[in-house]
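TICKET: design request
STATUS: open
ATTACHED STRUCTURE:
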């Protein structure tokens, strides 16, 4: 996304990230940015630990239908990656503003945005798939286990991840998409 600024010397076009990673953006807000970074680090640790425990619990649980368990595991893995990758990238972005490392700021923001975008899409589509799975369990009754198979669920999970990654890469190429 570009913005156009008209100055006395002519027209200047900057991207959204270039505007966010400048001294004029964060002037005097270093304490707030440090607080944001600390919150992101705390949330990162919490998200990682809780979702790791969920994955371990799902591994030990045997009463769940295997396709449903796969969907829950995919959702927990997505949230684990948010805690392991996306939130630390956002913390890096905030701290790069405090330390005034402008090139790191741009890379951290881009990486955090793309990673967060992809993981958000995976999470949203996986929750939708879980809802559809539960609806099919209610509507199909005894036929549910013949129709909702592990192979079909693997295909759905793979499709969700591929679509999310392609969509986030498109956002990397042009953020107007």
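STATUS: resolved
RESOLUTION: sequence designed for all positions
ATTACHED SEQUENCE:
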């Amino acid at each position: 996304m570009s913005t156009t600024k008209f100055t006395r010397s002519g027209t200047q076009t900057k991207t959204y990230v270039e505007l966010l990673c400048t001294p004029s953006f964060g002037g005097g807000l270093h304490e707030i940015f440090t607080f944001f970074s600390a919150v992101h680090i705390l949330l990162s640790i919490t998200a990682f630990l809780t979702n790791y425990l969920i994955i371990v619990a799902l591994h030990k649980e045997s009463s769940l239908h295997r396709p449903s368990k796969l969907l829950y595991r995919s959702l927990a893995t997505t949230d684990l990656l948010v805690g392991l990758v996306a939130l630390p990238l956002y913390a890096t972005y905030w701290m790069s503003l405090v330390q005034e490392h402008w090139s790191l700021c741009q890379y951290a923001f881009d990486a955090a945005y793309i990673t967060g975008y992809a993981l958000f899409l995976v999470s949203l589509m996986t929750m939708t798939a879980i809802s559809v799975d539960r609806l099919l369990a209610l509507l199909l009754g005894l036929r549910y286990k013949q129709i909702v198979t592990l192979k079909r669920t693997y295909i759905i999970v793979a499709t969700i991840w591929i679509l999310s990654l392609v969509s986030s890469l498109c956002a990397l190429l042009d953020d107007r998409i």
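CLOSING REMARK: The beta strands are 2-7, 10-15. The first strand starts at residue 2 and ends at 7.
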